[in-house]
Amino acid sequence: MTNKTIDFLNILHLRGPNIWTYRSVLEAWVDIHDLEDCPSNVIPGLPDRLTTMLPTLIEHRCSIGERGGFVKRLHDGTWPGHILEHVTLELQNLAGMSGGFGKARETSERGVYKVVIRAWQKDVSLAALNMGRDLLMAAIEDRPYDVDAAVAKLRDLVDDYMLGPSTRCIVEAAADKNRRIPYIRLLAEANLVQLGYGARQRRIWTAETDRTPAIAESIASEKDLTKTLLSSCGVPVPEGEVVASVEEAISAAEDIGYPVVVKPTDGNHARGVFTNIMTAEEVAAAFPLAAAEGSEVMVERFIRGTEHRILVVGGKMVAANMGEAVSVIGDGKSTIDELIETQINTDPRRGVEHEFPLYVISLDRFPAAKMEVERQGFTGSSVPPEGHEVMIVRTSNMAFDVTDEVHPDTAELACLAARIVGLDIAGIDLVCEDISKPLDQQRGAIVEVNAGPGLLMHIKPAVGQPRPVGEAIVAHLFEKDEDSRIPVVGVTGSRGKTPVARLIAHLLRLSGQYTGLACSEGVFLDGRQVETPEGTNWDAAERVLMNRSVEAAVFENSCRSILSDGTVYDRCLVGVVTNVDPEMHFGEFYIDSAEKVWNVFRTQVDLVLSYGVAVLNAEDPAVVEMAPLSDGEVIFYGVDGNNEAIVAARAEGKRAVFVKDGAIVLATGADEAPVARLARIAMLANGAGEKPGVLSNLLGAVAGAWALGVAPEIIRAGVKPYDPTAPLRAD
Description:
Blueprint: E1 7-14, E2 25-31, H1 46-53, H2 69-76, H3 80-94, E3 102-106, E4 112-118, H4 122-140, H5 147-161, H6 165-175, E5 183-185, E6 192-195, E7 202-205, E8 208-209, H7 214-221, H8 223-232, E9 240-243, H9 246-256, E10 260-264, E11 274-277, H10 280-291, E12 297-301, E13 306-313, E14 316-329, H11 336-344, H12 367-375, E15 389-401, H13 408-421, E16 425-432, E17 445-451, H14 456-459, H15 469-477, E18 488-492, H16 497-510, E19 515-519, E20 522-525, E21 528-531, H17 538-546, E22 552-557, H18 559-564, E23 572-577, H19 594-606, E24 608-617, H20 621-624, E25 633-640, H21 644-651, E26 655-660, E27 663-668, E28 671-677, H22 694-707, H23 712-719
Parallel strand pairs: 18-22, 18-23, 19-22, 23-24, 24-25, 25-26
Antiparallel strand pairs: 1-2, 2-4, 3-4, 5-6, 6-7, 7-8, 9-12, 10-11, 10-12, 13-14, 13-16, 14-15, 16-17, 19-20, 20-21, 26-27, 27-28
Helix pairs in contact: 3-4, 4-5, 6-15, 9-10, 10-12, 16-22, 16-23
């Protein structure tokens, strides 16, 4: 009896850099059973069925390196594990997560593969993986599969779990190759993100930052207060007043003079805003609808013209957009509802998802549009005469870029408005007939100042060029040469990780840096134990990087933690590898050879920054082999200064740490500087230094501290009295 199914044995979420890539992935252990004997070219019709289900697979280049490469592999013959990789990635692509990394590799067990896919967000990618399996099995068994329904479900998950477009554009700008700022998503289902590590971090929540004052936000939400402050500083605003009833609203409108605007004082996204109101009856109709969208209602003078949005970041205008008036033309046959669908909503730029710059219009969903139609004597079911224009919305979708047209005086007024309210990032709404002319020449006015403005209109305008607003916000948070990273040290190896990590953290603390340490003995902040073992898990380590007090961080990385989670940091300033035991296999992860073990530990060296240092044990040949993998400098350490790797490095003018004449020596090329005599180091006393690995670990820690720029005199003062057996404090 055959078993031609695909089963998941285990699925790991590798949240940080791992043996596969620098980015987060799902690693699925997949058992294809007897399908191991059934590559794609021996299953009748499988390639054609798959490409019918997913025609966009033609874009996958695969290992062939050209468009259609994967489809060629399908026809030539490839195995279900590899197919699952590509199908899953394509489902993610169709759901709006384009590109992505993928791998499929055999294990030592027949029919069992490791399938690796890029995981922007765990829940979304896990759903895509399961859908990919179901789709592939349907194709193998020649059964129907509703691809559209699967993609629609994935899109819903993207909306639920992925960062919104405004936050995402900032994060992408931070992570760009020009800045390479690390980030941590602080809430799984919200847009709160930390940029940078430890004491050098900044935080964003959509288009708000930790530099956005709460008082300024409160002022911006009170439209009447905002207008009062702006007016007092000479900024043109429409006169108006807050009203508590329909009667007061009508009275205010008559005092101000028609036309007027009726809107909530603390609304957003133009909800409950009714413009160009001409009569008391229209005021009475608009009042309850506006009241439903805010705590109070305001009546103000209607400004003729088009609404514009100017984005101000850090006191500078970075983008500007204009709204649109939307109307339909009667054909003598269709209702207004039908004309909206055929003349407006058929625009491919309109949709309900974030990727669409224009929204779908419906009279039922937009009370302001419904009132606009009714004031012209129509309803949604009315059939306007042929050629008759019916206005639907006077201002909507500020998605038309006009950045290059804004008059300098108007830009300066917008920046002034942001400063008056106190916002570092602000969306300034103004109304005028011509944005290229000063406001005072056309009775234009600023009508609102918004905190946390949406950025999609600038990222993906319906007309005009996208603006780099994410880059502008990142530049506002971090100066051009400002480092978003604290010194991060990663320590790995088969043995000696914990003592090396502890001593490096001790020396960093002595150098005056508030140091976080996550190791197998717990989590320590500035020498104080705050969490008991085990500290090598992801969550414990991440809390160190999230701590605003931490100025330097040291992490112990075991082989198992790298395999099960990846590393908590994206890159490190110093990476230490103590040794590699070729006999120490990890069969539970299918890591069952010396080569595979070596590939796990090399991850630490791969993560060293270009201006960082790999600290390697010169007395372990397997560790020495990792030296060419470092993007930064390499410091070898070993007891014997005549070690081949140390001698070769010094001949090239590089640094090394070793023992000579009974002292620890820091060497740079031919120059040697003794830092501490072994006989005066407490941890080596009473024969302790003769125990395997003790002296080597000491040298590794000294080399790590030196790589971090800790002064030799501090290293000397730190290692002499250091007692690794001293009890740990938990207070």
